[in-house]
Amino acid sequence: MADMVLEKALELGKLIAESDKYKTMREKEAAMMSDVDAIMFIEKFQGLQQQHQMLRMQGNELTEEQLNEVYALEDQMMSHPLIREFAEIQENFQKFLGQVNERISEGIEGKPPESHGSCSCSSCGPSS
């Protein structure tokens, strides 16, 4: 039985990889990573994150100025159309994966999660 579960999991992974949501996300990522300005923003942001992580690992708290530097750079990054598009598509894909996980949980528990009731708020998604 465990082998069949793993086989179905692999099949599910392949179906997800063939989905339009996944393909679109990969296309947007490739476009973003082929843009020199986008790469510059990403590398600068990652470098800043690493610096701040090192500070925190040394027991230091980030100053307000350091936090503001991160927020400002994040705003600059999100003003770049390719980065913004990728971030939006990636967020949608993560929501889709969350829905997949909810359905798996539904199969395990034998009942739909509470959020699948009559609620139609954006955090729960549309009613099933």
From TrEMBL:
Residues 115-128 have a biased composition (Low complexity). SUPFAM superfamilies: YheA/YmcA-like. Residues 107-128 are annotated as: Disordered. This is Cell fate regulator YlbF, YheA/YmcA/DUF963 family (Controls sporulation, competence, biofilm development). It comes from the Bacteria.
